[in-house]
């Protein structure tokens, strides 16, 4: 199935969760937030949130500096 991540098309296996996506993209364990259809999903719900074809996600990584 295809989803949109930060305006780019990504292929996933049907039934994958946000946590599966985070592992596939090798996201760090801290300093990352994910929004599904412009709604922030708490990290505690990533394992439960099953993605559907056409879902749109935004991944935000914390940056250090000033």
UniProtKB/TrEMBL annotation:
PANTHER family: SULFUR CARRIER PROTEIN THIS. Coiled coil: none annotated. InterPro entries: Beta-grasp_dom_sf, Mopterin_synth/thiamin_S_b, Thi_S, ThiS/MoaD-like. NCBIfam families: thiS (TIGR01683). Pfam families: ThiS. This is Sulfur carrier protein ThiS. It comes from Phocaeicola acetigenes. Gene3D superfamilies: 3.10.20.30.
């Amino acid at each position: 199935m295809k989803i949109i991540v930060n305006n780019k098309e990504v292929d996933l296996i049907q039934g994958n969760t946000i946590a599966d996506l985070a592992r596939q993209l090798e996201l760090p364990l801290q300093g990352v937030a994910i929004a599904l259809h412009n709604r922030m999903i708490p990290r505690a719900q990533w394992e439960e949130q099953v993605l559907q074809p056409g879902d749109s996600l935004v991944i935000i990584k914390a940056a250090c500096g000033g």
